[in-house]
Amino acid sequence: MRASQFLIATIKETPADAEVISHQLMLRAGMIRKLATGLYSWLPLGLRVLRKVETIVREEMDRSGAQEVMMPVVQPAELWEESGRWEQYGPELLRISDRHSRSFCLGPTHEEVITDLIRNEIKSYKQLPANFYQVQTKFRDEIRPRFGVMRSREFVMKDAYSFHKNQESLQETYDVMHATYTNIFTRLGLDFRPVIADTGSIGGSGSHEFHVLANSGEDDIAFSDTSNYAANVEMAEALAPAGERPSATEAMEKVATPDVHSIEEVSQFFSCAADRSLKTLIVYGVQEEGQSKAPLVALVVRGDHELNDIKAEKLGGIAKPMTFASEEDIKAAIGCGTGSIGPVGLSIRTIVDRSATHAADFICGANEDGYHLKGVNWERDLALGEIADIRNVVEGDPSPDGEGKILIRRGIEVGHIFQLGTKYSEAMNATVLNENGKEQVMIMGCYGIGVTRVVASAIEQNNDDKGIIWPDSIAPFQVAIVGMNMQKSDRVREKAEQLYTELKALGLDVLLDDRNERPGVKFADMELMGIPHRIVVGDRGLDQGMLEYKHRRATDSEDIPVEQIVAEVSKRVSR
Amino acid sequence: MRASQFLIATIKETPADAEVISHQLMLRAGMIRKLATGLYSWLPLGLRVLRKVETIVREEMDRSGAQEVMMPVVQPAELWEESGRWEQYGPELLRISDRHSRSFCLGPTHEEVITDLIRNEIKSYKQLPANFYQVQTKFRDEIRPRFGVMRSREFVMKDAYSFHKNQESLQETYDVMHATYTNIFTRLGLDFRPVIADTGSIGGSGSHEFHVLANSGEDDIAFSDTSNYAANVEMAEALAPAGERPSATEAMEKVATPDVHSIEEVSQFFSCAADRSLKTLIVYGVQEEGQSKAPLVALVVRGDHELNDIKAEKLGGIAKPMTFASEEDIKAAIGCGTGSIGPVGLSIRTIVDRSATHAADFICGANEDGYHLKGVNWERDLALGEIADIRNVVEGDPSPDGEGKILIRRGIEVGHIFQLGTKYSEAMNATVLNENGKEQVMIMGCYGIGVTRVVASAIEQNNDDKGIIWPDSIAPFQVAIVGMNMQKSDRVREKAEQLYTELKALGLDVLLDDRNERPGVKFADMELMGIPHRIVVGDRGLDQGMLEYKHRRATDSEDIPVEQIVAEVSKRVSR
Predict the structure, then answer these.
(1) Can the keyword Aminoacyl-tRNA synthetase be found in this entry's annotation (chains A, B) (predicted)?
(2) Are A238 and A389 a contacting pair, CB within 8 Å?
(3) Residue B233 in contact with residue B420, Cβ under 8 Å?
(4) Which among A72, A73, A99 has CB closest to B141?
(5) What pLDDT does residue A200 have?
(6) d(Cα B341, Cα B371) in Å, to the nearest integer?
């Protein structure tokens, strides 16, 4: 492409209403423009990237054996009523009426439509498994769209839905999709993690989110520094420190601690680190029939750890959502305030976090206002009782798979694979005849990639103060050729044109900056637009038979002999 | 692709609610499924065709220098208010409200959005001309969607919009688009005509529609049997017959013709063909100030010709829309009823069609109830007066470009190129600075292709009683390999697999029908689905070193030696 024939719409100033770097750079580089809140037009530069992402996604989905379909953006209300979501789904579902006052919605997702389609097309277990995907425009009427295409209202998604006769088959396809997504994000050139995710209220038995690691991410991801293990912080299993619990060295002692309640106050009073004390949190249990009120449950975690309510709720016997007991109920049951509770001599159900069981000579509340105990030791001063994982992981924890230590980084969710089970197929009566000639509800999986979001997240991960730095696989152009003084020097113009022709012939995406602009303007534009490989053609270099090459990430340029440049650049572009 | 891993969803019965053949065959072949009125899901087979059409359209648009963009499906009302179309556009424009009660519509077209985008991005005449296109989902809330994807509510369109500093530049791009569309429809393998079209009420000065010729088309296309000339029947210029007008041979004579009014009655009464008489139609002229009523105008055409009201209206002085005078007004002005009018001695403005001026010894009304004149001759019995083209062309007319004769066929409009002029850029103040540093409104063109409709129209043009017959360029699969008794014969299975691998390696789209079905079922499915090239692998043929090849259009199959089949089939697939 010649820059003179391409809409280069770079902007010098950082747009005021763009909060995150990808939004700023997509506007500044001329990739997108806002049409209305949460609605963006893609300019030629941006669309080139979007199409490359789409192509990689399609190639890998096809390779996985999934079949591409295309379902309408506009969906009839009837199907959503069948699944129950017409009522359940919040105002993000944009409900509309056609000229005959029939109800439709703009599809934020296509479970209902695909389930309807497949229940009519697939009648026998012999046709299973089958996996269908589409790359389609979707709409979610976000209350506060923001961050540009990262959280827009209209967006492009790749969504896939698989159908199975049993759980084993679903697991097989799920594993294939896990591998496919790994291939896709690897080819996209992104630093990502497949992350064990909560299946949440939707049910189902397996779910991974694929996160691009970036400081601006909205989720905390815990992952091993050596293995592939990764999980949402809320989901990551927290292990006890390695090795045996240290032996007791102190005697238990009751200490008057006036005005000492929080862990910070305890640490300060006793001049010790937070991990030397245990905190005991009191929540409500499940009220049994005949009980006048809900029982209380004590949850014990180390002073430097945080209670994880999802994990606690899953243990059973704890009220959902998990709720801290009132000061009044605690006083009545235990006889002291929240700041003085400890596990020693506690008569209610007590659950101790794994790491807390490794503490020795620890400090805790004495169950008496104004007093703490120090030098406390498990199995000497109190029984261990019920032990469970009830805390969030922290950096440095051992990885649950036994390999390496936990790191925690921010991630942007760009993909999600999910074992749906029979949620939709049961509600919509999507059945097949099984081996015995009986009707059986199909089991489903679903697999999404936020295609437009991938573009933004790639920028979040790859930028510097000059602009975007594209991975070669999705760069709008892989190579930029900048001619110095091209309008006046025939030699420069001819060499630039020749390189342009030769590099294109090798299948590279090349932008020849033939604009009548100062070199500084051209350099700044190419850097802002993130073209990874740049060749400068100038009279001075040609005098010495050299051309200047610079990778977008390199600090300095290199001189490469004219006759080697095409082969050399071609070699450096990863394909 | 292996048929066992592909959703083959063929249907034997013709669906009851599908009126046209393409709709029937798209359902029967398993290309599409109806989701709701005017909304269709594309199954894998159909989508393969749609994507091939899109690819050809994109490649040719890119080659033309147009730049691809993507604008949202959902568009804000404000822009449509600026252009005036929020009020003007009928209920086909689906108007919706978001959660904040702001008004939007589902875009049926994108003139407003692109004009808004470009007025912000292009500031100088130096950036012109520029042509932007997208391939995007559009929505028109048709009152009566029908014919499947031929007239659906949600559809895929390629729309392009060009911007210019002057009319010459628009004309240049318009000509490039004309050539580009010709390339596109040629590559799609369709029999089509670029047709001179009416610019209608939208204004503008140039327009061509691209029609696929098919009996089920909704438009009548007049085109030359030897040259490229083609036009909508309403637009096609009607010439007089070639040569001089025959000489008069009869004397003018007044004949009593009781109860003879229509041309049919005249022909019967005088035992002559309809082209021997002239009919005179009386319409209202434009009422001038001071006139108590509108004047009458006589329009004279040959008995076998039809008046064209669009042409008549364009002459000036005739009321728009053209309206036939009442019996009462005619009686008052001429003294007879409509069935007895003729041009001889008529005192009102009289416009004579070119072909009517070539009649000799003709019959016409005598301007006296119950009488006709016969043996009438121009310039002897009456003056020629005002001559114009005021009739529809008919088959056999000389082509207006002087080459060949006119044929008339039905056409399906699949593309439209249009010189918009300043309709949108003026309303929306889309200006650039011109050479003199002054603001100047841009001139625009627009260029559309109904991508989903192309698929249906290709079927309308290419089918037989067994199903679809795809052109090679857009066939979902170019080659089908059918193994006879594949499950039992190792030899057949191995040969079929080998051919499959070898043909795929040559870049062909191959469907290996490896299903455990009877040969008859497989043949019927492959024919219904329209795969153009079929190879049958069977034990009997292999015994003789032969494979059976059949083109979908051929009546009989041919035997081709095993060792030649790959090269031979590859040669026959046009690429």
Answers:
(1) yes
(2) yes
(3) no
(4) A99
(5) 60
(6) 9
Q: Which residue of A has its CA nearest to B50?
A: A70
Interacting residues of B200 by C-beta distance below 8 A, sequence separation 6+ = none
Tell me: pLDDT of A201 over 60.
no
Our CA-based measurement puts residue B459 at a distance from the nearest CA of chain A, in whole angstroms, of 20
Q: How far apart are CA A383 and CA A357, in angstroms?
A: 10
Nearest residue in chain A measured CA to CA from B40: A72
Is a pLDDT exceeding 90 seen at residue B134? yes
CB contact (8 A) between residue A99 and residue B73: no
- Kindly state the helix (H) or strand (E) to which residue A209 belongs, with its residue range: strand A207-213
What is the 8-class DSSP label of residue B326?
A: P
Q: Measure B69 CA to nearest chain A CA, in Å.
A: 5
Mutate to test the interface with B, among A74, A128, A134 (most CBs of B within 10 A): A74
DSSP annotation string for B170-182: HHHHHHHHHHHHH
Do the chains contact at A44 and B132, CB–CB below 8 Å? yes
CB pairs under 8 A between A and B: 134
3-class DSSP state for residue A36?
strand
Please give the C-alpha separations between residue B561 and each of B444, B491, B509, B545, in angstroms, as whole numbers: 58, 16, 22, 6
Mean per-residue pLDDT for A184-208?
82
Asked if the model's pLDDT at residue B34 lies above 90, the reply is yes
Tell me, what's the ipTM? Answer: 0.90
Query: Residues B462-493: pLDDT tens digits?
Result: 999 999 999 999 999 999 999 998 889 999 99
Report residue A55: phi and psi, to 5°.
-65, -45
Q: Is the pLDDT of residue A202 over 60?
A: no
Token reading at B537: 């692998």
In the prediction, which pLDDT does B200 show? Answer: 60
Asked whether A351 and A315 are in contact (CB, 8 A), the reply is yes
Nearest to B35 among A51, A106, A113 (CB): A113
